[in-house]
């Protein structure tokens, strides 16, 4: 099966079926990761070398197993598509963002706060409408890179083994990659590996957002604002995305009871329900652009 058709099939499965409600492979992987963390980082005493060992034990055997399985005739092609489907989060992002968008449009601030609280780590209990819209828009833009475009990128580069390695690594970063006393040393490897795997996809995502929105403003925001952001990959993605939408994001946010003064992102109007809608539209059009380019490239090569 050609790369373009496999990408198209994986995206179609995700949009039709969404995340598996039962027996999600990442749930089982999360349990494995928790056991490894307890073994290698008991009481937060693990060092960087322990984190490297745990990462290798969690990711490499499963990646190698997928590589073996996709060599099988007939079954291998189906496994390629299923691996991509399991790694994608395009429909999931819509399922989490749309209730927030609908609640804001209805004027139901409490429902909007609850909805956005399910997808961001900041304290959402006291957010006003603008704060809820900022949080949701940022989540769509950033997770669009992590859960959609990076998965498509690594599938295009290395097939099912590539997308599995990326998705498992990204999951470990979400579980272990915190700068807390427990994970400062142990989670270092998971965070750095995920940064490396996301470096190119994040910049391609930022470029995609820029091309499909207010291009000049997006590129300017990317150049000026991304270096100020803590994350080397989230900065370009969110700065370019905010600029493409012509909206103001970033700014103060409360995490674990402490106010964090984050740099500004983008420029233009304050965030609103329409910013969330715009971010979702940017994401969908970006995926369509990538699929068209891959299919066109395959046709020209043939």
UniProtKB/TrEMBL annotation:
Pathway(s) of this molecule: Cofactor biosynthesis; adenosylcobalamin biosynthesis
Keyword Transmembrane helix recorded: yes
Membrane-crossing segments per the record: 52-70, 147-166, 282-300
Keyword Transmembrane helix: yes
Location(s) in or outside the cell: Cell membrane
Key words, A-Z: Cell membrane, Cobalamin biosynthesis, Membrane, Transmembrane, Transmembrane helix
Matches recorded under InterPro entries: Cobalamin_biosynth_CobD/CbiB
Membrane topology: Multi-pass membrane protein
Job of this protein: Converts cobyric acid to cobinamide by the addition of aminopropanol on the F carboxylic group.
Assigned protein family: Belongs to the CobD/CbiB family.
Protein name in the entry: Cobalamin biosynthesis protein CobD
Organism: Geopseudomonas aromaticivorans
Gene giving rise to this polypeptide: cbiB
């Amino acid at each position: 099966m050609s790369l373009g058709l496999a990408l198209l099939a994986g995206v179609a499965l995700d949009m039709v079926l969404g995340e598996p409600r039962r027996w999600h492979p990442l749930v089982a992987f999360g349990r494995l990761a928790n056991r490894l963390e307890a073994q290698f980082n008991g009481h937060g005493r693990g060092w960087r070398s322990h984190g490297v060992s745990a990462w290798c034990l969690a990711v490499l055997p499963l990646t190698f197993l997928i590589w073996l399985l996709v060599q099988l005739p007939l079954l291998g092609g189906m496994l390629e598509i299923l691996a991509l489907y399991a790694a994608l989060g395009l429909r999931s992002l819509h399922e989490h963002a749309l209730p927030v968008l609908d609640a804001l449009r209805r004027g139901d601030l409490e429902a909007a706060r609850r909805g956005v609280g399910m997808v961001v780590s900041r304290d959402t209990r006291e957010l006003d409408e603008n704060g809820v819209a900022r949080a949701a828009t940022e989540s769509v833009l950033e997770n669009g890179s992590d859960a959609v475009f990076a998965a498509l990128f690594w599938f295009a580069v290395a097939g099912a083994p590539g997308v599995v390695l990326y998705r498992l690594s990204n999951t470990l970063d979400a579980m272990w990659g915190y700068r807390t006393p427990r994970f400062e040393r142990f989670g270092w490897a998971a965070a750095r590996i995920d940064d490396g795997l996301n470096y190119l996809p994040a910049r391609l995502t930022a470029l995609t957002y820029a091309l499909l929105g207010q291009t000049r403003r997006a590129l300017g925001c990317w150049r000026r604002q991304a270096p100020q952001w803590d994350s080397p990959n989230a900065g370009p993605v969110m700065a370019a995305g905010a600029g493409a939408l012509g909206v103001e994001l970033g700014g103060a946010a409360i995490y674990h009871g402490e106010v964090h003064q984050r740099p500004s992102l983008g420029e233009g109007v304050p965030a609103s329900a329409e910013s969330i809608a715009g971010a979702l539209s940017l994401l969908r059009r970006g995926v369509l652009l990538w699929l068209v380019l891959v299919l066109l490239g395959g046709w020209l090569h043939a």
